[in-house]
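User: Hi! I have a protein structure encoded as tokens and I'd like to know what sequence might fold into it. I'm fairly new to this, so please keep things simple.
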């Protein structure tokens, strides 16, 4: 069971700003998106955010999160897709650090603005 905490920290504090040369704004936006996901997952799974492991953050959970932010927060498709981009970026980062979770990272939630027609 691999927890998210150390991977999230490295992703946000080292990988994005140093390796990807992401702006401060991008780093903050990604951190906020992932924080919202962790809050949602914590409530849904009834565990503290520090107890969430990688296997629990699967495609159905992410899709439920995206639906929830649209309904409960009134997010537009554009905002929802920005949140999804942050989540996908984090899982692409994990592919090289947690090879056991490669398939999980490739489960792309197909919930984008194009589907809203």
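Assistant: Happy to help. Inverse folding works backwards from shape to sequence: for each of the 117 positions I chose a residue that suits the local structure. Here it is:
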């Amino acid at each position: 069971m691999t927890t998210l905490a150390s991977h999230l920290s490295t992703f946000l504090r080292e990988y994005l700003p140093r390796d990807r040369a992401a702006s401060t704004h991008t780093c903050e936006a990604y951190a906020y998106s992932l924080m919202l996901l962790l809050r949602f997952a914590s409530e849904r799974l009834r565990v503290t955010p520090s107890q969430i492991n990688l296997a629990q953050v699967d495609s159905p959970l992410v899709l439920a999160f995206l639906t929830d932010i649209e309904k409960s927060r009134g997010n537009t498709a554009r905002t929802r897709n920005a949140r999804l981009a942050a989540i996908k970026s984090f899982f692409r980062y994990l592919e090289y650090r947690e090879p056991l979770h490669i398939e999980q990272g490739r489960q792309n939630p197909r919930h984008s603005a194009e589907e809203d027609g």
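A useful reference point when you look it over: The longest helix spans residues 24-45. Feel free to ask if any position seems puzzling.
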